[in-house]
Amino acid sequence: MEKNKKIFNVKDLCLYFQTKRGPVQAVDQVSFSLVCGRTIVFVGESGCGKTSLARAILRLLPRNVHTYSGKVFLNSINIMALKEEVFRKEIRWVKAAMVPQAAMNALNPVIKVEEQIAEPLLVHDLVQTKDEAHKRVVEACRLVGLPLDFLGRYPFELSGGMRQRAAIAMALAAKPDLVVLDEPTSALDLLTQANIMNVLKRIKKETGITFILITHDIGTSSELADDAAVMYAGQIVEKSDAAHFFTEPLHPYAEKLMASVPTLREDKELDFIPGQPPSLLNPPSGCRFADRCHKRFDKCVYEPPFLEVKKNHWVKCWLYE
Amino acid sequence: MQNNVLLEVNNLKTYFEMKKWGFVSIGHVRAVDNVSFNLKQGEALSVVGESGCGKTTLARTILGLYRPTSGDIVYDGKSINEFSKGEIKAYRAQLGYVQQDPYGALPPFMDVRRILAEPLIINGVKSRQEQEKLIERALTDLKMTPVEDFLPKFPHMLSGGQQQRIVIARAKILGPKLIVSDEPVSMLDASVRIEILQLMRQLQEEYDLAVIYITHDLSTVRYFSERILVMYGGKIVEQGPVQEFLDNPSHPYTQALLEATSDPDPKNAETFKKVPGGEPPSLLNPPPGCRFHPRCSYMIEGLCNREEPPDFIIKENHSAACWLYR
Questions:
Q1: How far does A128 lie from chain B, in Å, by closest CA?
Q2: Domains of chain A and CATH, by start
Q3: What is the tens place of the pLDDT at every residue in B141-153?
Q4: What are the structural domains, with CATH classification, of chain B?
Q5: Is A242–B269 a contact, with Cβ atoms under 8 angstroms apart?
Q6: Which positions in chain B touch A262 (Cβ < 8 Å)?
């Protein structure tokens, strides 16, 4: 794969869910692109649409979808235009895989670890024989640091950290171009969490795979981030490279969010954001953060544009007009 | 009153018996094993450790919800083992408990007024007026104003942060001297977390409360407590004042914990963390000697895997249970 190639491009992706009280705008007009081998981190509070975004990308949708629109290009093919059957056969697990939230509990309890990791390979006919499948499984296990004698065991015989590794191995077995990690470490202990982060970092270095990391833990997210995006109420409010994002966030929400992260190594003045995020049923018409914003002014009643303030640093806020 | 010892825990052990087929004993889970510490009036103490290290069991033993297997808890100069039934009730009324999951801790069929009145009714505050006054004060202390708006609400109508504030209000409504809060913010969003912790800090200072703050998140510790206690495998491995602890972590396990905690810093992406692999020990059959030795890179063969390390003093008030400091 060549460097600096845009592997993944999302344009105006929307995902609304139908409820009794009207559509919930879980993901609203989200656009971003990813360069091959880079990792983008999505951070935000619970209910801001992070997981819905992941599901929208991989088209893992529930039944009550109201609107599902936009364009998603993977290797310059618009995968949104593909038929469901084609998408299942050629994209999901093959080109783009996902490690779901609490993946350690997503494993099937009655199937041995090896068979589970091999399943995407066999279902998609990526390998012809069982031996070949075994070889690929062993390769994936080496990558995530899963001891090979665990392969013959059932998931309940493994610890949380090892199950998480198995879930990651499963996503990597088919060698996809893109892996979406949805809160990969949130249910794990601190030391195990650090170990998994080390594993992901090594995989990134060794294979040049592209990750989308979704997390609420800003401290941990900096471990893997090349780019970072903040989501608020279904929209991306700021996007930039990690170096700028973690040191000088520009959007008032991102700024406050950063100030609310307690740090171990330095003593800083902590801050919090009063109020709570708006309902996604009837989000406010202007800036969705305006109600809680400390820098609010007259213009905030209109929807702010997504502006490129500096090179590659995009902010959705009237302050930077 | 500042230097009065409020709570003294001596060689506390809480074991749970494990049974096979319902009656054959196959050993004990040593959830809290020989833990000693003390807590002064008005002091905030953090208890840190990974899941399954006995933090919650320690808290629930102190609250009198579990009977200690052996050892002693001395509260205000009196051992709880010697308490009569009435005294246990009075003791529990002097302790507040803030649970981890606010939604699970609040009964869904009671409104806020009823939830907050419950401890008052149980502890004999009969007069309606008195109840109203205490409830109003508790809610105002937690900045849930106007009070009338919240009183008729049910837990599902409140946000996570508000629910947690009701739990805290309930814990402090009887005017306790000690509040035990078990991971009070782990279920909340980052932006709300600090608000709740700051509120608890304010309450602590205002009412001269002693607080035991149980957490797995080391990064909040420096802001909300003076002293820290690190647990591993049912034992205390290190204790000391927070600043001293952060500057000079002594036990290899605490060093690993600090290493594993990441601050938001773009430089993190370039380096690998030096953390030990492996898993926490089983508390049913803990390893002999130091419980951390199978994962420890400083392990001294023949000592760490044979003999249990005692507490070694590192500095005043700072001790670590590790043979490296013998």
A1: 36
A2: 6-90+180-185+210-320 (3.40.50.300), 96-175 (no CATH)
A3: 998 888 899 999 9
A4: 5-94+174-325 (3.40.50.300), 111-173 (no CATH)
A5: yes
A6: 194, 217, 219-220, 222-223
